Amino acid sequence: MKRSMISFLASLSLSTLAMASGAQLRSVQSNGSGCPVQASGAIPYGFDGEWLTIDLSKAQMNVARGEGISLEESRRQCAFTLDLKAPTGYRFALERAISWGQMDVSDGDQLHGTLEAFFAGAGSTNLLQASAEGSDQNSFTFDRTLNPYDLNWSDCHKDRSLVVNTAIRVSNNAAPRARYQTYSAATEDKLALKFVFQKCH
Question: What pTM value is reported for the model?
Answer without folding.
Answer: 0.83
